[in-house]
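FAQ: What does the model actually see?

It sees only this:
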Amino acid sequence: MSPNALIPSHRKPRRSASSRALRAGVTGGFLTLAVTGATVPANAAEKPVSETQEMPTITAALATSATKSADTAQQVAFSYERQALQDATEAKADKAADKAKAAADKKAKAEAEAKKAADEARRAKEAAQARASRSDARSTLSDVSGGSSSSSSSSSSSATGSAATLVSFLKAQLGKAYVMGSNGPASYDCSGLTQAAFSQIGIDLPRVSQSQSTAGTQVGLGNLQVGDILYWGSAGSAYHVAVYVGNGNFIGAQNPSTGIVERPLNYDMPTGAVRVL
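And it is asked to produce this:
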């Protein structure tokens, strides 16, 4: 046995030493670590573990992505802002339109009410004038129709020439039917009868009552002569006509119920008269 066999060795045991390096990098946005080791001889001088660390770096792709995300967010915010402004503008326009419509409706209503009031005032005035005219006519016609029958009789009997022909034709039509729009010979309406009567003496009258009421010279009801055209309603807008035949009477196509009749003036006092003879 070797004399040194039991003598313990003073050499340090062999051991594997490794130096490690710590590396860091960015992969897909995550921090990755890699540890590498190298075996060194046991008798090599031990070195402290060297560690290196690299901070994450922003790649061009990541920067571009961030920029695009910021632009998208800005565009979305701008779209919301623009839509809000558009909605506010439309709401304001709708409100203004509603206000304008309400004002227009109010104005139209006021105008309609004013027109209605004016029409009522005009009708009231015409009615008052008609009543006044009839009142005057009643007072003056008392001499024609009642108080001076001899004078009235002479008025009828003294009708000669055209007036006599006119009265003769009208009396021949008594009892015939009243038909709206008819001008003879079997039936007439009021203006159709007067037109046909005056055509017998060569006078061409307009066809309708409104025009006949202004066809001649306006005369007072207290100064009537045989052949004067009587009208009911305002001159130019009369709704009925007949012919004065003397003795305080008139002949006219009254209505479908009575037909053509002779009536005293006080049966239905006319509004006015025109003279064409």
